[in-house]
Amino acid sequence: MLGIHIAALIAAAIALAVLGGILVKRRVGPWLLLLSLVLLQLPMSAAAFDYVRVPIDGWVRAAVPDRETHTFLTLFYAPLLEEPAKLWPLLLPWVWRRLDRANAWSIGTALGLGFGLGEIAFLAERLASTPAVAALPWQRLSGFAAERAMVCVWHAAFTTLTVWAAARRPSLIPAALLGSAALHLVGNLPIYLAARNPLGWSAQVLEEALLVWVIVYTIAMALLLARLARRTPPHRDAREARPA
Question: Is 110 exposed, middle or buried (0-12, 13-18, 19+ CB in 10 A)?
Fold first, then answer.
């Protein structure tokens, strides 16, 4: 097993321990439903990239030959493509009928966790095809493991915001989805700026700055999740909790 695969397993274990542990502790919503949502989301990162992002990028490259403009536009790919991809299980009748104000937090977190876990596996496989990365021991890839585990919290927060709004009033979904995409964009923006390096920082300073940003933003998204959890009413039977 390559070092990148071990690092991916560590990241997945951390995310499962934290977010999965909270889901189990809250015990809001049928456990089989939440487990199903996590499993349904596992292939969505790869699917959104291979079957949606890659074709769209081909069209954008053809329409926008300027490299800098194209690079700037790619900044919007993940927010605009991944956030809807995480919500597709809500289209399933057996999921939508069970969504209510009491379990919206758990459902959103399960969807975000599943997507994040799938993204870990997807990125690990892509990196494993890079000889320089494939040769590294897992200890040298601890940064990858930590970052990916924290990004799972981001995904959970982004998705929970939209699901939380959907449980209150379906008409709020477009605005909440745009809000989730905006949060996603803010999270990724420093990565784009680091690649441009407008301040001329050294590689080490850039790496440290990005690490600080990931930690700070993870704390912010954890606080958002906590706030949404506090605004979730006590669990009741779905037929009672479902808004009219």
Answer: buried
